[in-house]
Specification:
By secondary structure, this protein is an alpha+beta fold. It is built from 4 helices and 6 strands, in the order αββββαββαα. A hairpin with a 2-residue loop joins β3 and β4.
Amino acid sequence: MQWKKTPPELAATFDKAAPKDPKVVRKPMFGYPALFLNGNMFAGTFQDKIVARLADDARTRALKAGAKQFEPMPGRPMKEYVVVPATDVAKPAALAKWIAQAHAYAVTLPEKTKPAKKATKKATPKRR
């Protein structure tokens, strides 16, 4: 499956909708712009789409209102993520609400910590 880059204008729209929280980090996820809070991704772009991570109740409402489950690959949905409808992406205030809702959910998630590095084994000489 060939993935295409996010169009620069969509990335700029996404950046403008990002919350002004200094704890939010923008970094790439699989080469696409994404927003993280405490190590948890809560919004991002994927090709020509913007996705948001929502709590169960908000996700249920979004899906009933026409949002689609995010599936980066057919048959492989990302459980908590929905694709923001293109009509809302085109409206700065509407997109900002989606991102704010995802940010509010990210605040409730436990902080991700990096796993401790395993001790490296010293090479033992082979016996003859």
